[in-house]
Each structure stands twice: as structure tokens, then as C-alpha cells.
């Protein structure tokens, strides 16, 4: 051990004041909490029903950064590149921030099919990735897979996939008469409409048939229960007809559309290959829309544009491209009420935040004082 001589003539070191000790302790606590949140676990709350019934509105989660490895932030130093005073943190726009390359530290697990994953939403291109909205979905397919949906059944690499959780489907429940018996059954079967004050779906008319009933979303087991009830006349699947990826090549972005429309729908989709790092793609008007966002946005290439159904770089059509990172396919368990990869495509690996592992608290937004806490969900692991 190295010892250092003291100067007997030096004045004694003054002890810290109480206020200085308090400031130092507070600063240490803030730094420690920030590091823990960045590198280990972070708490989130479920605000929307896109993952019902696997995750409910009002579930409070712990998300592990350790599983896949914490990733360095893109914007740790928010330094202005202009001299103008503007409302966004004092900067003209988020593009004026210094954005650093990301690096992911090693984790003890890779992203697997059926993992419930938190990630930065890919389509908010006006923000750096780590300042975007965080989404939570289930990973349905990983890099290198080929995904397809047929009549709502997921196929991975040509075989029916084993899907975790409790996937929901939307139905119109036609009844002989909308009454308290039906409402009680909906309540008992945990069928919820978050747009209603009491959470119970309201009776209405099917505009396509004129039938009276309820628009509901529920798992297959609940649908089977209602099909057996004497007051139910029919239970038919409902789903919106929308333009999906890759027909819409740049969701909420440039408006680029595929030169070869596929007209896939929510339950009938694909087959679609999930890009893998190191894979070289031959680009044609038939597939360019699949890879447009990868080339133009996710992998930070320069001078990329879209013209005549082809990706261009420096004004010339790009005929091949080598993928620089892995990509994943995310879907909500509430299949007809989830804005997910079917709308905006692949999730890049550098957008992944962590794996949802534990529900530590669950509050029912429609519960009264005695039933506010969903006690059966406390400290429930996420499958």
C-alpha cells in the first residue's frame, strides 16, 4: 500500500456543510438511478389495448435491458448546431442535435420468437430513435424467417407457428336482444371497451347487415363461450380493410407506394422474408418497397430517394443492397386493433429497448375502490 506523507503545517481540511452533503447525496442518487434504468430494468405502464388479453391497460411492467444488452443513447449530448433560439430544447429541430452511433452491450439472451419486446417505434423519423415513442408488441418472426398469415393463422417458414399469449380477434356479436344478461356476460368474460365509461361494450348496429349486437374483441376461448349461448344469433369476424406494408412503403412518411401492389390484409398477409444482417438483396420494382425504409432511414445511407418504384442513390437506381443489421417482425396480440409491423414493416435491432419480464402492479381503470387493484396479476411473469 502506498502511503502519502501529510504536511503538519497545512490547515485541517474543512468538513462538508450539511447542504453540500445533501447535494452530493442527491447527485449520487440521480446518477445511480439513471445508470440502473439505462443498464438493467425500467418501469413502463400499458396505455392501450393492442396487447390484450396478454397485457391489460393498467398493467405496470418491469422491462429488462439485460436480456438483449443495454444500448448507448443516440443523443446523450444535445448540442445545438445552429445559433438560433427555438422551442425544442433550444434547438431548431431534432436534426440539429448531435447524434452518436449506437452500440449495444452484450446481453445474456438474443431476441426470440414470442418474446414481448419494448422498442422505439420505427416511423417517427422526425426524432432520433431514442427520443421516439416506445411500443410494446410480441416478436412473431426473427431475422431470416419468412412470415405469412392465412385466415389469421401465423406461419413461420411455411409451418404453423406456435404463438404465445392470448391473441384476440374482433367480432360482431349479434344477439336477439341487447339486455342486462348480455352485458353481464360481457363483463364476466372480461370483454372490455375502453371507449365506454364503464368499460362494457355498447349495443349498436352492424352497418353491413343492419343486425343489432356488440362489436367486441376477445380470445378464441371467449368466442367459443358466446357461440354456445342461446341469446347469440351469430358471431362473425370483423376487420378493417387498410393499405398495409409494403404497399405503403413509408408509413406516416414520404407516401412512397410499391410499384407492385400486394393488397395484403390483417389476417391474410405475406409471405414476407425478414431481413438478416449480411444478406445481399437484388432490388427490383417488385420488392424495392420492402427495403426502402431500411436503405433510406434505418441504416443511415446518404442521398437516398424514391422514384418510379425504385430506390435511388445519388440519382441512380440501386440494384442491390447488403443488409447491415438484423430486423424483427412485431405484432400486437389484439390482432385487429394493433398498429404494428403489418402497417410499418420491420423493427431494426438498434431500435430494441428490452424484454418485458414482470407485471409488478395492475390497476383496473374501471374498478371501484375495492376492486381497483387486479390482485391476481401482481408479480405475474410475462409469457
From TrEMBL:
<dbReference type="Pfam" id="PF10502">
    <property type="entry name" value="Peptidase_S26"/>
</dbReference>
<dbReference type="GO" id="GO:0009003">
    <property type="term" value="F:signal peptidase activity"/>
</dbReference>
<dbReference type="InterPro" id="IPR000223">
    <property type="entry name" value="Pept_S26A_signal_pept_1"/>
</dbReference>
<dbReference type="GO" id="GO:0004252">
    <property type="term" value="F:serine-type endopeptidase activity"/>
</dbReference>
<comment type="similarity">
    <text>Belongs to the peptidase S26 family.</text>
</comment>
<dbReference type="InterPro" id="IPR019533">
    <property type="entry name" value="Peptidase_S26"/>
</dbReference>
<keyword id="KW-0378">Hydrolase</keyword>
<dbReference type="InterPro" id="IPR019758">
    <property type="entry name" value="Pept_S26A_signal_pept_1_CS"/>
</dbReference>
<keyword id="KW-0645">Protease</keyword>
<feature type="active site">
    <location>
        <position position="50"/>
    </location>
</feature>
<feature type="domain" description="Peptidase S26">
    <location>
        <begin position="312"/>
        <end position="360"/>
    </location>
</feature>
<feature type="domain" description="Peptidase S26">
    <location>
        <begin position="20"/>
        <end position="162"/>
    </location>
</feature>
<protein>
    <recommendedName>
        <fullName>Signal peptidase I</fullName>
        <ecNumber>3.4.21.89</ecNumber>
    </recommendedName>
</protein>
<dbReference type="GO" id="GO:0006465">
    <property type="term" value="P:signal peptide processing"/>
</dbReference>
<feature type="active site">
    <location>
        <position position="137"/>
    </location>
</feature>
<dbReference type="GO" id="GO:0016020">
    <property type="term" value="C:membrane"/>
</dbReference>
<dbReference type="InterPro" id="IPR036286">
    <property type="entry name" value="LexA/Signal_pep-like_sf"/>
</dbReference>
Amino acid at each position: 500500500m502506498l502511503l502519502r506523507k501529510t504536511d503538519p503545517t497545512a490547515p485541517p481540511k474543512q468538513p462538508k456543510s450539511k447542504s453540500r452533503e445533501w447535494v452530493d447525496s442527491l447527485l449520487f442518487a440521480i446518477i445511480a438511478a439513471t445508470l440502473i434504468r439505462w443498464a438493467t430494468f425500467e418501469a413502463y405502464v400499458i396505455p392501450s389495448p393492442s396487447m390484450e388479453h396478454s397485457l391489460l391497460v393498467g398493467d405496470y411492467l418491469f422491462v429488462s435491458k439485460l436480456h438483449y444488452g443495454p444500448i448507448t443513447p443516440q443523443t446523450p449530448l444535445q448540442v445545438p448546431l445552429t445559433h438560433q433560439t427555438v422551442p425544442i430544447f433550444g434547438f431548431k429541430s431534432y436534426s440539429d442535435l448531435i447524434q452518436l452511433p449506437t452500440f449495444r452491450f452484450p446481453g445474456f439472451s438474443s431476441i426470440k420468437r414470442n418474446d414481448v419486446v419494448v422498442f422505439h417505434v420505427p416511423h417517427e423519423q422526425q426524432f432520433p430513435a431514442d427520443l421516439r415513442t416506445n411500443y410494446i408488441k410480441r416478436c412473431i418472426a426473427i431475422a431470416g424467417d419468412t412470415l405469412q398469415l392465412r385466415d389469421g393463422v401465423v406461419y413461420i417458414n411455411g409451418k404453423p407457428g406456435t404463438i404465445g399469449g392470448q391473441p384476440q380477434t374482433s367480432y360482431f356479436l349479434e344477439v336477439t336482444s341487447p339486455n342486462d344478461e348480455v352485458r353481464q356476460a360481457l363483463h364476466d368474460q372480461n370483454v372490455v371497451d375502453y371507449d365506454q365509461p364503464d368499460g362494457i361494450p355498447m349495443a349498436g348496429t352492424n352497418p353491413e347487415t343492419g343486425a343489432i349486437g356488440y362489436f367486441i374483441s376477445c380470445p378464441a376461448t371467449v368466442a367459443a363461450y358466446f357461440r354456445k349461448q342461446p341469446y347469440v344469433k351469430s358471431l362473425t369476424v370483423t376487420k378493417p380493410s387498410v393499405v398495409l406494408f409494403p404497399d405503403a412503403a413509408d408509413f406516416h412518411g414520404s407516401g412512397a407506394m410499391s410499384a407492385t401492389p400486394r393488397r395484403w390484409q390483417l389476417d391474410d398477409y405475406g409471405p414476407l422474408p425478414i431481413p438478416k444482417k449480411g444478406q445481399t438483396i437484388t432490388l427490383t420494382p417488385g420488392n424495392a418497397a420492402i427495403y426502402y425504409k431500411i436503405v433510406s432511414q434505418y441504416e443511415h445511407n446518404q442521398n437516398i430517394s424514391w422514384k418510379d418504384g425504385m430506390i435511388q442513390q445519388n440519382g441512380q437506381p440501386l440494384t442491390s443492397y447488403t443488409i447491415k443489421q438484423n430486423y424483427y417482425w412485431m405484432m400486437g396480440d389484439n390482432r385487429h386493433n394493433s398498429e404494428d409491423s403489418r402497417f410499418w414493416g420491420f423493427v431494426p435491432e438498434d431500435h430494441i429497448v428490452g424484454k418485458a419480464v414482470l407485471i409488478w402492479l395492475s390497476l383496473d381503470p374501471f374498478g371501484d375502490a375495492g376492486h381497483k387493484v387486479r390482485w391476481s396479476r401482481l408479480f405475474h411473469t410475462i409469457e
